[in-house]
Write a structure and sequence with these properties.
heterotrimer, A: about 250 residues, mainly alpha, globular, B: about 250 residues, 11 helices, about 70% helix
Chain lengths: ~250, ~250, ~240
């Protein structure tokens, strides 16, 4: 009989992660989104560098100019998170997934883990490529980039991008449908949040602002969070989002 | 044609996602206006300023187009992809084109349905936004004159044209994700197209930058377009997109 | 062995299943019959842990599906449609399932050959015909060479050749001592395939037994089916 418990959770998880990585790899959407994000980021970095060369940017720091485009290209990774999670609901794949991996907690955790494995290098490439392009385009005109600052900024930005995309994925898990998830995430990050940020003091604890503090410390706001505090807060938001998503996912009818 | 329009309207209004679109369309602009009105009121009471220094209400209506972007996108994408579990190759498009074999007429009635819904949403959003601003700011609310009527017409035109632009792009892409992402992202507080005006003045002729002049003055982008010409430029873009979309749609296999 | 006991499913105020009980035994093909909306798919979804029962149990070899150690080598399930993302290729779909169960990669080509889909393995699922999509679903279910097969309306979309192939295939599975449970609303096809029958109507079991028991004095299974489902309507 195959009903005796012989496999460990660890083994179960390793298999699930392999399966989820294989799903991500074989989904054309993953590659389209990654390439799209990368290209759009370079185009925007080019635009910002041009603005910087003409003295139109508010800063002369090549590092800041190079990272500015991330403000928009982060949408690409958010979309990646939402699309891959919601792809389960295309063609009834969710039924296959849950019959193959009926332990839903393990399955959803593995799916998000596999997504993270893709997100981290992608975030790193997106954030550093913008800075490198700016360095090439602006050359000697701007403030030189200090290696230590560059590394800490890239690490911070990559972490922010990864965690934000994971929050988007968690919302995708809860909503199951791409359209509402996309509207909520893009509406929140690009319209609601920037407006609230200016208005309310509590806004600094919101996921985006907490994260933004990770690479642009704002000394003018005495109460602003330090990058480390922001990072911890954003991680907490992400963890909360994932826990809520997993709970909903485990309880409901597929 | 009348029957076809009625059919398309009822199809559009029976999509589950339409309710997100309606909610976003009629609530986003008033909600932002409420937040900003309180902020302005606060400043006035603290005597930081004596009156509202910008035409409150109009800029906010620019963000509300998110709702009609969703309307335009789902009108087409729902014909191609159902996110429901049962796949079976079930595309509604086949049924639609059997019922209404003229593809041009099919697209025209669909576009009319999108335009109608968008115009109605725009009018509701304008009313709600104005009422909200008036209630909160009371005597500090900016005076409305005859000149503002043309701006309201501008808002309605902008919403309808934006919805049709979303519609046109989705005819080409078929899938909702790309047009949704690009257009929603570009309604952000600092839009990508606005940033592009910093690189080249030609960006002023991009559809949204041109169209928004129908009701908002953009002083710092160098303003080569009057409200009327802004509308004309945007309408030209939309016409071009719809024409390309129609030709493509008529030529391709389902 | 599949054991369903006092299974109830309520969605809102709507009773989808009203305490149904039946068994599907090894070595036999059990037909789960009923009109559209009778609750067949709901029962199968609960059996596979996709939906939650309001009360009652649905067990596979004595345990809930979710607790099976090796779900794919114990149970193979075929649902409506392909169960695959439209943009993935058939082979890629089977590949990830194989990984999730730690099965050998060679199984992918074996099942593709078995269901006659080897020529279309590199095509995207969205380009498949209805029949090909069903074959892919079946291929996925067969990856683990399971002792139990559960099929929801398996003949939907299959061509006559496919239907005959499936019938022979299922008979062979049962003959080798495995369990087959299939839902259907096609009486003629079912009568030629099954040993045991369970008839469901509006969430109640209105008849169950062997094929000969159920048909009884009726001329065909179809007549018996209408007699049983109509009786329920009157009562």
């Amino acid at each position: 009989m195959s009903t005796s418990i012989t496999r460990t959770y660890g083994q179960e998880m390793r298999r699930a992660i392999k399966a989820e990585l294989s799903k991500l790899y074989s989904l054309p959407i993953t590659w389209y989104t990654l390439c799209g994000t990368f290209i759009v980021n370079l185009i925007l970095a080019c635009a910002y560098s041009n603005a910087g060369l003409q003295g139109l940017a508010s800063t002369q720091s090549k590092l800041e100019i190079g990272l500015a485009s991330v403000g928009y290209s982060q949408a690409g990774l958010m979309i990646l998170g939402i699309l891959t999670v919601c792809s389960e609901y295309n063609g009834g794949q969710i039924r296959t997934t849950l019959t193959a991996m009926p332990l839903r907690g393990i399955q959803i955790f593995s799916a998000l883990f596999a997504l993270t494995v893709v997100l981290i290098p992608a975030a790193f490439v997106v954030s550093s490529s913008g800075v490198l392009l700016t360095e090439i385009l602006i050359g000697d005109a701007g403030t030189p980039i200090v290696w230590g600052n560059f590394m800490s900024a890239i690490l911070g930005v990559s972490g922010y991008l990864t965690l934000t995309a994971l929050i988007s994925a968690a919302i995708g898990v809860v909503l199951r449908r791409m359209l509402p998830a996309l509207s909520i995430i893009l509406g929140y990050y690009f319209i609601a949040e920037p407006l609230i940020r200016e208005q309310a003091d509590l806004a600094k604890y919101l996921p985006d602002t907490a994260g933004v503090g990770r690479w642009t410390p704002r000394p003018e706001h005495a109460s602003a969070l330090t990058p480390v505090q922001g990072g911890i807060l954003l991680s907490a938001w992400t963890l909360a989002a994932i826990i809520i998503a997993a709970t909903v996912y485990r309880k409901r009818d597929a | 044609m009348k029957n076809a329009l009625a059919a398309e309207l009822s199809k559009l209004l029976s999509l589950p996602a339409i309710w997100i679109a309606v909610a976003v369309g009629i609530l986003v602009a008033p909600a932002i206006a409420v937040i900003r009105s309180f902020q302005e009121l606060f400043e006035i009471e603290k005597s930081v300023q004596t009156a509202v220094e910008y035409p409150i209400g109009f800029e906010e209506l620019g963000f509300g187009v998110m709702g009609v972007i969703i309307v335009g996108v789902i009108a087409i994408s729902s014909e191609y992809f159902t996110e429901s579990e049962e796949s079976g190759g079930g595309r509604q498009l086949t049924t639609s084109l059997t019922a209404n074999p003229s593809r041009i007429r099919f697209l025209m009635s669909k576009a009319s349905a999108v335009a109608t819904v968008s115009a109605i949403l725009a009018i509701i959003a304008i009313a709600l936004t104005l009422v909200a601003v008036r209630i909160i700011l009371a005597e500090h609310a900016p005076e409305l004159g005859i000149a503002d009527i043309s701006r309201f017409i501008g808002v309605v035109c902008y919403w309808v044209l934006t919805a049709l632009m979303a519609f046109g792009i989705t005819i080409l892409t078929r899938h909702a994700a790309l047009p949704m992402a690009v257009l929603l992202l570009n309604t952000s507080v600092v839009s990508v197209t606005y940033l592009l005006t910093r690189v080249t003045p030609l960006a002023n002729y991009l559809p949204d930058m041109a169209g928004i002049r129908m009701f908002v003055e953009i002083k710092d982008a160098g303003s080569p377009l009057t409200p009327i010409w802004g509308g004309v430029v945007m309408a030209a873009w939309v016409t071009a997109l719809l024409s390309i979309g129609t030709v493509t749609f008529c030529r391709r296999d389902l | 062995m599949i054991t369903i006991e006092q299974l109830t499913k309520r969605r809102g105020s709507h009773n989808i299943l009203n305490g149904i009980s039946f068994k599907a035994k090894p070595g036999r093909v059990t037909g789960f019959l009923g009109p559209n909306g009778a609750g067949k798919s709901s029962a199968l979804r609960i059996l596979l842990g996709l939906d939650r029962a309001t009360s009652g149990t649905a067990l596979v070899n004595g345990v809930p599906y979710v607790q099976l150690t090796d779900p794919l080598t114990t149970v193979g399930a075929v649902f409506d449609g392909s169960g695959a993302h439209r943009l993935r290729t058939g082979r890629a779909h089977l590949n990830w399932i194989v990984r999730s169960a730690g099965l050998p990669r060679s199984r992918v080509n074996e099942v593709l050959e078995m269901v006659g889909l080897a020529h279309a393995a590199s095509k995207r699922v969205g380009r498949y015909s209805l029949g090909m999509a069903r074959r892919l679903g079946l291929a996925a279910a067969l990856l683990g060479d399971p002792e139990i097969l559960i099929l929801d309306e398996p003949t939907n979309g299959l061509d006559p050749e496919g239907i005959r192939w499936l019938r022979t295939f299922l008979r062979e599975r049962a003959a080798s001592g495995r369990t087959v449970l299939l839902s259907s609303h096609l009486m003629g096809e079912t009568a030629e395939t099954v040993d045991d029958i369970v008839i469901l109507n509006k969430g109640h079991i209105v008849a169950s037994g062997t094929l000969t028991d159920i048909v009884g004095s009726h001329k065909t299974l179809e007549d018996a089916f209408f007699a049983f489902t109509a009786r329920r309507d009157i009562s």
